[in-house]
Amino acid sequence: MDKIIISQYKKVKILQRSLKWFASATTLVMLFVLIGGALVTKTGSGMGCGRSWPLCNGQWVPDNITPELVIELSHRLVSGLAGIMVLILSIWAWRAVGHMRETKCLAVVSFVFLVLQALIGAAAVVWGQSDFVLALHFGISLISFAAVLLLTLLIFEIDKKFSAASLNLGRPMRFHIYGIIIYSYIVVYTGALVRHTNASLACPSWPLCAKSRPLPMQFHEWVQMGHRLAAAVIIVWIAVAAVHAIRHYREQPVIYCGWIIALLLALAQMATGALVVFTGLNLYIALAHAFFISCLFGVLSYLLLLALRTRRKPEKAAGHPVRETAPATLK
């Protein structure tokens, strides 16, 4: 009997380890989808396969191979692989950790939003879309990526080495988390709009639009400066939240470190945004810009998940969390 129990325990551990590896791989592939989408936009490869989807120029194996075709086709293949992996992960996680209340919701969101972004991309190829609609594409992909990331983090909680229920978040911290995650999506949209309207270099100077005239004068300059202003606001807001975490949440490392990482990513995002202008839209820096915002949104999404999972507890008048005392031992 003991051998049977030990054998079953080993099988469970192997399945858990396999699920963790697969979830990590799926998260990495979803990150490639985001970076690949940014690469397609920044290199103008959206029409690399012509007005044909899912085929490329109406062919399974294209005759005329161009760099734009390779980039667009590669992005489609990676997106297709991601769709299969996300579907498998969603079903697997649903069965393995479905007892966690967030699992089913994240599984559905990750797959549905990935399909939605694929449909928007296909519609843009076949029928064309306005820049304002295309700007939604990256944001929808970002939601799918964040859902897969959170699902992966939930899977890593199988061992119960960390419990969000042990956290104690005050009202100011909850306000920062809820407000910044919502506002960050607006920043993401404005950044995507900059790319899709080809306004990345509309303002030749930084942080002002031009040395001779600080205010924008035409549409593309307004799009560029609107994004810079939105990005500046979120950096200041994240800095305020990070200072609040440093002052009041040192005993809760996941919150404390989460905001420190978020601030570093926001600063890296700002630095790469400035370098995009100074280097004349260097491709690698532009892709790094997309990478940092993806990671930042992932961190903010995890903080949101923690805020939604923690218990609401009494707070001091100043809004700071109250330290809990250990429960009395039953005798």
UniProtKB/TrEMBL annotation:
Predominant localisation class: membrane
UniProt keyword terms in alphabetical order: Cell membrane, Disulfide bond, Heme biosynthesis, Iron, Membrane, Metal-binding, Oxidoreductase, Transmembrane, Transmembrane helix
Record's bilayer topology term: Multi-pass membrane protein
Superkingdom as given in the UniProt entry: Bacteria
Reactions that this protein is recorded to catalyse: Fe(II)-heme o + 2 A + H2O = Fe(II)-heme a + 2 AH2
Transmembrane segments: 21-40, 77-94, 106-128, 134-156, 177-194, 225-246, 253-278, 284-308
Metabolic or biological pathway: Porphyrin-containing compound metabolism; heme A biosynthesis; heme A from heme O: step 1/1
Cleaved signal peptide residues: none
Binding positions for heme per the UniProt entry: H227, H289
Subcellular location: Cell membrane; Membrane
Listed cofactors: heme b
EC number: 1.17.99.9
Family (UniProt): Belongs to the COX15/CtaA family. Type 1 subfamily.
Protein role: Catalyzes the conversion of heme O to heme A by two successive hydroxylations of the methyl group at C8. The first hydroxylation forms heme I, the second hydroxylation results in an unstable dihydroxymethyl group, which spontaneously dehydrates, resulting in the formyl group of heme A.
Oligomeric and partner information: Interacts with CtaB.
Official protein name in the record: Heme A synthase
